[in-house]
Specification:
- The structure is a homodimer.
- By secondary structure, the first copy, chain A, is of the alpha+beta class.
- Chain A has one domain: PRC-barrel domain (SH3 type barrels), CATH 2.30.30.
- Chain A is built from three helices and seven strands, in the order βαββββββαα.
- Chain A has a six-stranded mixed beta sheet with strand order 5-4-3-2-7-6.
- In chain A, a hairpin with a 5-residue loop joins β3 and β4.
- The longest helix of chain A is centred in the C-terminal third of the chain and has 10 residues.
- Chains A and B meet through β1, α1, β3 and β4 of A and β1, α1, β3 and β4 of B.
- β1 of chain A pairs antiparallel with β3 of chain B, so a sheet runs across the interface.
Chain lengths: 124, 124
């Protein structure tokens, strides 16, 4: 496991996960369908609290992707599937805030709408 | 700013920052000396709380790097320098827990030692 100069083999412990391991991880729904991958995730600078992960899908052949901010608490890592599982149906996600090229301003209103779309109270 | 298909131009707002923007960011001390760069950062899976960022330095010509976990709260982003500034002297960092090839297990004891080395109480 620690052959050669591959740095940092573990990158994950029982309760911690490395930021760059989260990025690129697949996201599935309960039915096991792949919804996309985690593009990146947004951290509240001062508190260090992760506010949401950005689910990316599409983007084949340079056609551009769609990005869906998901509240962090909707994601559960599943070891067997090697990815995150969300208990959300596609319709709910489709109707939630998302964007393609231009990233939104992520102001307070937008962030509350993201949480609200998933039936969650906005933290703080 | 949104020319071509460059995805997600902003990646940062007043109080949020994207995970992949944190990675690779330079870290300076108060004197403006560059200490290294952020390799990645570790997130507590369930709560989504960032526990520490991993400062990397060295690693030129395949010589291998050293990695220093820094409590998130020690890092302050400085727009002018385009990087994080830490109010820590080199000696303190040198004496704090760090590793090179093999990542430690990041168990409770290790994590408490990281915080303790920087004079901070371990959260939770």
């Amino acid at each position: 496991m620690t052959e050669g100069k591959a740095p940092l083999p573990t990158e994950e412990t029982h309760d911690l996960i490395a930021s760059d391991k989260v990025e690129g991880t697949s996201v599935f729904n309960r039915a096991g369908e792949k919804l996309g991958t985690i593009h990146n995730f947004m951290v509240e600078k001062r508190s260090g609290q992760v506010e949401y992960a950005v689910l990316q899908f599409g983007g084949v052949l340079g056609m551009g992707s769609d990005y869906y901010p998901l509240p962090w608490e909707t994601l559960t890592y599943d070891v067997d599937q090697g990815g995150y599982v969300v208990d959300l149906d596609k319709e709910m996600i489709k109707n939630a805030p998302h964007y393609s090229e231009d990233e939104p301003r992520f102001d307070r209103d937008y962030r509350e709408r993201v949480y609200g779309a998933y039936g969650l109270a906005y933290p703080t």
